[in-house]
């Protein structure tokens, strides 16, 4: 029943956004972006054949994350090969293995750019839903999910972290059709951000809104409980400065009950997971290109990284 209730909320939330969706699909386009080359990093087998059930040979046993980290730890050199773009070339099982081998790192501060992508199947080319459906239905699902990715990326530009206050706000592009969903546009805090894509040639900067406030804290990952993640919690955001019922309540406990979590890939670059009522929705990245570049050599040289969250028992943390 909880799954049905959550899906109903998601559909209702999607209905609220229909005003913006048609214009957004036209504005941002539906062309599916090409996937970049896959980085050469190690993964464990996606199933443990040593645990085959003699009474049910088709039963699959997934490799547990502790064993993945023990057998194929990620070095700093491996993590340096990862980018917000090439993560999209991997299957969801591989993304999960990467996330489970990361630590939270420091809670970010300032504006970080954002990107998002839905879970992909084992070939890394199709979405998981398309892989399950197959044939014409699968192709149709793939096209629709690609459109949702385009829409999400066109509107959501990242997150503004306030490290000292342990809160954040989402950076949403100033897009006229969304104004019908906002109580009072004059109350929205606005910032200037670098524009991406073809329009950056015409105008390198654009205005963005800071919406959907959330609280930041260290807490247990919904994927991997062996160590903490940085949690982005929208459930009790109504007491945060600047909160507006419309649209901020849509992400809260009375709406989609969104809960994000992130872990650091390397300084300035985080991999995240978004959930609605504890149901996994999609992957996302937040990153600061300058910090990624400036801190890379020190990271490769093995300089210690600050940890704000519990990094797990020493025996669990892979040597870097």
Brief overview:
The protein has 320 residues and is of the alpha+beta class. Helices cover 28% and strands 24% of the residues.
Structure description:
With 320 residues, this protein is an alpha+beta fold. It has one domain. The chain contains ten helices and nine strands. It has helices spanning 2-16, 18-28, 65-71, 76-80, 92-100, 128-133, 135-155, 245-248, 289-294, 296-300; strands at 110-117, 156-162, 167-173, 189-194, 205-220, 228-233, 258-266, 269-276, 279-287. An eight-stranded antiparallel β-barrel has the order 1-2-3-5-6-7-8-9. A hairpin with a 2-residue loop joins strand 7 (258-266) and strand 8. The model is unreliable at 14-31 (pLDDT under 50).
Sequence-ordered SSE layout with sheet pairings:
Elements: H1 2-16, H2 18-28, H3 65-71, H4 76-80, H5 92-100, E1 110-117, H6 128-133, H7 135-155, E2 156-162, E3 167-173, E4 189-194, E5 205-220, E6 228-233, H8 245-248, E7 258-266, E8 269-276, E9 279-287, H9 289-294, H10 296-300
Antiparallel strand pairs: 1-2, 1-9, 2-3, 3-5, 4-5, 5-6, 6-7, 7-8, 8-9
Helix pairs in contact: 2-7
> How many E strands?
9
H and E string: HHHHHEHHEEEEEHEEEHH
Low-pLDDT residue spans: 14-31
For the sheet with most strands, the description reads: 8 strands, antiparallel, barrel
The helix/strand class is alpha+beta
Shape: globular
Overall structural domain count? 1
